[in-house]
């Protein structure tokens, strides 16, 4: 097996200015460098469910934002600090959200 350091690549200021800042606008122009941005892997053995997962996430997000207001809970540490003793990117202490049903 070959492992790519996805976490390091996704946080490299050479490819992403201010990599630790939440900035979804950086992907608005439609250009994504596939040699650097690879959340589902790369090559012929890439995750078979990546397109399905992306579509499902978009549908879920649409319905949540349509029917609910999302707010960080007081248990959420702001600014977020990442756990250092894990291979996965996880918030130290968790990331807690409040969902409040919107009155339509």
TrEMBL record:
The keyword Membrane applies. InterPro entries: Cyt_P450, Cyt_P450_CS, Cyt_P450_E_grp-I, Cyt_P450_sf, Insect_CytP450_Detox. SUPFAM superfamilies: Cytochrome P450. Signal peptide: none annotated. Heme binds at residue 47. Coiled coil: none annotated. Keywords: Endoplasmic reticulum, Heme, Iron, Membrane, Metal-binding, Microsome, Monooxygenase, Oxidoreductase. GO terms for molecular function: heme binding; iron ion binding; monooxygenase activity; oxidoreductase activity, acting on paired donors, with incorporation or reduction of molecular oxygen. It is found in: Endoplasmic reticulum membrane; Microsome membrane. Its cofactor is heme. It holds the Pfam family p450. PROSITE patterns: CYTOCHROME_P450 (PS00086). It is a peripheral membrane protein. GO terms for cellular component: endoplasmic reticulum membrane. The keyword Ubl conjugation does not apply. Belongs to the cytochrome P450 family. This is Cytochrome P450 9e2.
